[in-house]
Design goal:
The chain folds into three domains: 69 residues; 60 residues, no CATH class; 175 residues, von Willebrand factor, type A domain (Rossmann fold), CATH 3.40.50. 36% of the residues lie in helices and 22% in strands. It contains eleven helices and nine strands. The strands form two sheets. Strands 3, 4, 5, 6, 7, 8 and 9 form a seven-stranded mixed beta sheet that branches. Strands 1-2 form a two-stranded antiparallel sheet. Helix 4 packs across helix 6, helix 6 packs across helix 11 and helix 8 runs parallel beside helix 9. It starts with a helix and ends with a helix.
Length: 370
């Protein structure tokens, strides 16, 4: 019975997963999942999953082929159930979405399958050692919740055979206290790969609320995938107009737009963070910058080139520049980077004209497995 339930549950999960993949672009672009996050799980509204069930009618109430009617009459139609055909309120409930809970790890895998994202290959020696407890040992004492049934049965069988009590015609095995075996944890020292994600966002006057929301959605899914790839990960946040500063995550997404734009100020702060806190011997480093492509001057763009050349690109696994479309931004910085860093493998550029393009941008950034 338990095996049948497990099979049914697995089949149900497969159906739900298919529905999520079918509507993944809509889920991602809406941003609804971010607000439903809690304890590393999100609730996803799923429509149109029909669960088969028997429905019994009252005895002698008629059925298909019974009662009054003419050829061609529609069967089972009762306009008074739910809403009526003329739009008036009915007396029955309508269909509702089913909230299905998924872990962020499961969603990351679904997104990776849909976008065909490769697993990330950490750079060189960027690992540290960490302690990890695993239930891989067996002991003779322990709580009943950790009893190992196969090992217990095996001990009881061995005892029965050795004592001469085993009857192959009637193979009844009854474990006693001395036969019981329990799972127990063992501490292992395992390599753990560390990574840091540095997010940079332009909060100048040309970046509106919609542009910041697009950044928030894309950052959430980038973060979700990278956390699925690394054991230990940190996130840092830098905002800038003409000046840059490091902020907390909430401030990063909620800062009101104002002022002009000097992108080099953000690169300077990013360079300082990497140099002071993330030695290359211990960290995989990712930088994702989001802007509408406006910069103050060509002189400041030249400063950006220098920071990228000398302080950033040689130290990071990936530098992703995402340019959101703004009615006030020129978009020129994308072309500046495109022209200047033609053959730079770890600098990836992506245009994000609207929410529907967020999934494509994620594939641009993560599709090479950097």
């Amino acid at each position: 019975m338990s095996q049948k339930i497990d099979q049914d549950h697995a089949r149900y999960k497969k159906i739900v997963k298919g529905k999520i993949k079918e509507n993944l672009r809509k889920y991602i672009s809406s941003g609804d999942l971010i607000g439903k996050k809690g304890n590393d799980k999100v609730s996803i509204p799923i429509f149109n999953i029909d669960i088969p069930r028997f429905k019994y009618s009252r005895k002698d109430s008629g059925g298909v082929g019974q009662g009054n009617g003419d050829v061609g009459d529609e069967i089972g139609k009762d306009p008074q159930k739910g809403g009526t055909e003329d739009g008036k309120a009915g007396d029955q409930p309508g269909s509702h979405a089913l909230e299905v809970e998924f872990s962020l790890e499961e969603l990351a895998r679904i997104m990776a399958e849909e976008l065909e994202l490769p697993n990330i290959k950490p750079k060189g020696k960027k690992t540290v050692r960490t302690r990890k407890n695993k239930y891989s040992d067996i002991r003779k004492t322990g709580p009943e919740s950790l009893r190992h049934f196969k090992r217990t049965f095996r001990e009881a069988l061995k005892r029965s055979i050795v004592s001469g009590n085993y009857n192959k015609e009637r193979p009844l095995i009854i474990p006693i206290k001395e036969d019981r075996r329990y799972r127990s944890w063992k501490e292992d020292i395992v390599p753990q790969t560390n990574a840091v994600i540095i997010y940079i966002m332009d909060v100048s006057g040309s970046m509106g609320e919609e542009q910041k929301q697009m950044v928030r959605i894309e950052s959430f899914w980038i973060d979700t995938w990278l956390r699925n790839q690394y054991e230990g990960i940190e996130s840092r946040y830098i905002i800038h107009d003409t000046k840059a500063r490091e902020v907390e995550q909430d401030t990063f997404y909620r800062t009101a737009e104002s002022g002009g734009t000097m992108i080099s100020s953000a690169y300077k702060e990013c360079s300082r963070l990497i140099r002071m806190e993330y030695p290359l011997s211990n960290w995989n480093i990712y930088v994702f910058q989001f802007s509408d492509g406006d910069n103050w001057s060509k002189d400041d763009t030249e400063k950006c080139y220098k920071f990228l050349d000398e302080d950033i690109l040689g130290k990071v696994n990936l530098f992703g520049y995402g340019q959101v479309k703004s009615p006030y931004g020129s978009g020129q910085f994308y072309h500046d980077l495109e022209d200047r860093f033609v053959e730079t493998d770890n600098l990836i550029l992506s245009k994000i004209p609207d929410r529907d393009s967020i999934m494509d941008s994620i594939k641009d950034f993560l599709g090479k497995g950097k």
